[in-house]
Design goal:
Elements lengths: L3 H19 L8 H8 L3 H12 L17 H18 L5 E3 L2 E6 L2 E8 L1 E5 L4 E11 L17 H18 L6 E8 L2 H4 L1 H12 L3 E8 L16 E5 L9 H10 L6 H16 L4 E5 L11 H6 L4 E6 L12 E2 L9 E2 L8 H20 L5 E6 L6 E6 L6 E8 L7 E6 L3 E4 L7 E8 L12 H4 L22 E4 L2 E4 L10
The protein binds zinc ion.
The site of zinc ion has 6 residues, from helix 5.
Length: 495
Amino acid sequence: MPKAMPFLFSILLGATGACQAAMPAVPREQPALHALARAPSEAELRATITRLVGFGTRHTLSDTKSDSRGIGAARRWVKSRFEAISRACGGCIEVVTPSRMFTGKRIPAPTEVMDVVAIKRGKSDPGRVIVMSGHLDSRVTDIMNSRSDAPGADDDASGVAALIEAARLLSKQDNDATLVFAALSGEEQGLYGGKVLADYAVAQGWQVEADLNNDIIGNSRGQNGVLDSTTVRVFSEGTKSNETAAQANYRRYHGGEVDSPSRNLARYMATLADGYLPDLRVRMIYRTDRFGRGGDQVEFLQAGFPAVRVTEAREDYTHQHQDLRIGNTDKDRGVAYGDTIAGIDFRYLARVTALDTLTMAALSRAPAPPSGVALAGAVTTDTTVTWHKVPGAVGYRVHWRDTTAPQWQYERAVGDVGRAVLRDVVIDDWFFGVSSVSADGYESPVVFPGFAGSFERSPASSVGAHPVRDHGPQRRRFSPTGWAPTKSGHSSVRP
Ligand SMILES: [Zn+2]
């Protein structure tokens, strides 16, 4: 061996070592997320829904004193479940019950709307909060009927069962950001429980990075007979609910119609499903909610927080908001109306629960999404992306995609910096974003530049933020001049 070789070898080794040390952080496949993907228990989900259906009705205006029937008994049972989960993890969860008195079009006398909320504080970043929500209340055909049996197995005991199961699974693991599991009330009367929780989050100073609102997630057979147990819909708004006219003008000119933080949260969930859930696909829907209908995520959006709605791929409207009965007209003879547990596909519900659970785990272990993301590069052939670094990140990734592509297509790890130049990537031709990466390889959602894409809470605009306070949006119809309330009354199919 020539004398110089050992020296040369050591130089090469040194160079390799230095190169590795400087390698930018990249997301890694996470065995912990693979384990969570398989963890949700069909037996647990079935036990919860069975118990909730057993309260007869959980209508917001129903009995609150009985221990066996009505919304009060259901709330106390959910509270006891959270407390049992907390005992099993050495008190890792605290349970709060924010509430407020409301009257409104669907609440004729002052009624307390109470949410039951489990909080698992984050270890290193407790002010950053990931919420999973579902609603406890149920209804039948007449929205004011608080006495008839309203099992609400799919709408929305399925969502509450999923969030209790997610709390049980995640209680056994560390989380950097705070996790919140919220069983809301008053949804059917007009999204009151969502309002109570969104206001509570603001009052507590929570930086809500995501609300995953799960409403109607347990049925896999559509009313038309089509079966789909391998797809879940994630609805997200395209532009922020509370952007100002100036912000809207800027966004209209420069882009951002399809890049609200809620939309990039939906993309994040779709990516996680692709990586960890081989038998569940996220179908992103570019809408805030189903056409003409609403859900509690709307209250989070209006408070300036990112939020999505998770809903089964195929709905059966004969199960939703219906008196329990068998059809006896020429059109529906023999149809079993009502939202009973017979309509739940527990294997499907477990897959959707897995999506929520691993999304919460991934978000809470990743650093906060970068803030202050901005672009420069007009009339040059390079694009410059800048951002503010965030605590807990050891690196960042710049992402870009065709302006017509639904998902991010290209990415580049750029190290622990606040600025990157993409050579020969022309600013005009792509949409850009930035994510942060933790030391153990967890990645945040991608942040689109400017107000349009920022995950930071945007101030609620005081005018027009709550146009119809005492109606659920599901009771509004779209007219050429905008959303208008319909007359209240019976609806056979519109939940
Ligand atoms: Zn619902």
